[in-house]
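Case 353 in the screening queue. Each case pairs one protein sequence with one candidate compound; here the compound is S-adenosyl-L-homocysteine. For every case the pipeline is the same: read the inputs, emit a complex structure as tokens, and attach any notable structural observations.

Predict complex for case 353.
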Amino acid sequence: MSTITSHASSKLNLLDCSRAELDRLFPDRPYRGSQIFSWVFGKGVRAISQMTNIPKEQRLRIAQEAEISYPKAAGRQVSEDGTEKLAYQLMDGRIIESVLIPEKDHWSVCVSSQVGCAMGCRFCFTATMGFTRNLTSGEIVSQVLYPIQTYPDRQFRNVVFMGMGEPLLNYEMVIKAANIITDPDGPQLSKRRLTISTCGIVPALADLARDTDCGLAVSLNAPDDDTRSELMPINRKHPIPELIRALKAYELPNRRRITVEYVLVRGVNDSVEHARRLIKVLHGLRAKVNLIPFNPWPGCGFEAPDLKSIAAFEERLKDSPYTVMLRKEKGKDILAACGQLAGGKVNGSREPH
Ligand code: SAH
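Case 353 output:
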């Protein structure tokens, strides 16, 4: 085994390795990397001693230099609607959160890509934490592996990068994690069922189209630059016309559509006139629209629109070529809905799992 050391401990964490990196560790044994990949990401073993198709003395040698180290499960809250928020403590003590969302016949996992976020969107609770650091690929992948191992009777089928952080600002690790999650020897989730959600980091979009065929969601949230810049500072750097141009150039496989997310905020972007302008802005784009009524959090200055305004907005959009879906607010009572994750900032009373 050639030597690499990881920053967090003196041993290499195999969870942080891609298939190619594992292969490179064993240059004279071409199958060894694949064997380890299947044990770590497919079968989910947590000890090198359990890799029984590797000779024992080899296992002992590998264990001297490498380990399988998961973030610590640090809390679990269950919402009235069945949604669960999980907290994990990372090696450096930081806390991140994931959300498990029950659907009709399967579960979705909403994963974080960063500790905090630097984007400063004014409606988002995570933004109030500021940015601390990027997650490693292992810290992202373990948010999928942990629920699969802990709840074997649940069908985890969808993974969405809609938790804490801006995935495209942790590009390398997000792509690495997405490749592992969808690897046939790993947890085997379908690429069609993995969606990366971004606030619109335009330069990264061209790379993304080239590097993965996962789904793409974009948080548009307003149909004009004035309103969007007010809500999302990133719009000053990459305004709507530039973003839409990049999205039109973005090619999803099998004629899949880009999901356009639109958080409805009372009195800010929720009028029928906004809906009309949204249709105009999306003209020529293969997209579907996902409406998300604003989820409040402690100290926020915004409110969700009333039901009548939400219905009127939705109605106006139905009169367009775009499929529109109103996202159900799941896990709102435990601050697990969109934009409510902040690593236990308000809820210090979580029970250990
Ligand atoms: N940074 C990425 C992913 C995290 S945010 C992105 O911007 O897409 C995931 C989604 O939650 C985004 O569509 C965002 O607009 C939405 N969101 C953020 N705060 C929200 C809130 N308080 N209520 C409803 N949706 C919110």
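Case 353 observations:
- Residues 123-124, 162, 166, 197-199, 219, 221, 261, 263, 292, 294-295, 338-339 surround S-adenosyl-L-homocysteine (CB under 6 Å).
- The longest helix spans residues 137-150.
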